[in-house]
Amino acid sequence: MKTTLETGEHGRRIPNPEKTGVFRRLKESIISGNYNLRELKGALTQESITVAQYAELASLLLEKLDKRVEIDALTGVFSRASLELKLNRLKEELNSTEGRRKLPVQSIMVIFLDIKEFKKLNDTHGHLAGDQALVVAAERFKGVTKRGDMIFRVGGDEFLIVLPITDNNPDLLQSIFQRIQEQINTNLSFSKIEPDGSQSETITFSISIGHEVLNRGDETTVKEILNKADQKMYLDKKSQ
């Protein structure tokens, strides 16, 4: 006799309530992040779910894993893994005919940043304080940027901010950079959290910053832009 999964009253396929329940539970576990890969595989081999349901779960899991790779777990900003893809895509949109219709962007400002004397901060106050500094820095970067801007953590204490800008006036671009530079380094500090959860001393730190601008029509590659911004950040660090 055929099961209710295979046929209904008129030969119509109808869902098996038990399999639907297992599918929903597994789907919720993936969405919440509390999934078990062995359980997912076992559900198919034990026929607890259908092949179609397994395919949907696998697609959802891949999407979840892609996002996990794309986002830096500590700071919540984009990770280095997604940097060149997103920046190249933005550059293509900047210079393409279709992109010009969609985006009123004339320039892309790339800002390279790192925490000054980060190794000393780690050695003096411990790695927990170093992690706090990274989180505080990332939150400050979020506070000085707007929707549509992108922030990346590209190394241990190195970050990158990408700003699509609707103007290419050099004076305006310089004033935007100076404003961001000042806002980032104003009263940048945090209360150190001890291993027992208590707060102790206040630690003040600052950020080295360098920037470069890519204008519409420029043939400069993304790698060249990143290198130039990195070099200017290094000069800023050495000047202090």
UniProtKB/TrEMBL annotation:
Matching Pfam families:
GGDEF (PF00990)
List the PROSITE patterns hit by this protein, alphabetically.
GGDEF
What one GO molecular function would you report for this record?
A: diguanylate cyclase activity
The protein's matches in Gene3D superfamilies, at most eight in alphabetical order, are given as:
3.30.70.270
Q: Which domain of life is it from?
A: Bacteria
The GGDEF domain is annotated at 106-240
Q: Name one GO cellular component term.
A: plasma membrane
Q: Which GO terms describe its biological process?
A: cell adhesion involved in single-species biofilm formation; negative regulation of bacterial-type flagellum-dependent cell motility
Q: Which InterPro entries match?
A: Diguanylate_Cyclase (IPR050469), GGDEF_dom (IPR000160), Nucleotide_cyclase (IPR029787), Rev_trsase/Diguanyl_cyclase (IPR043128)
Q: What is this protein's name?
A: GGDEF domain-containing protein
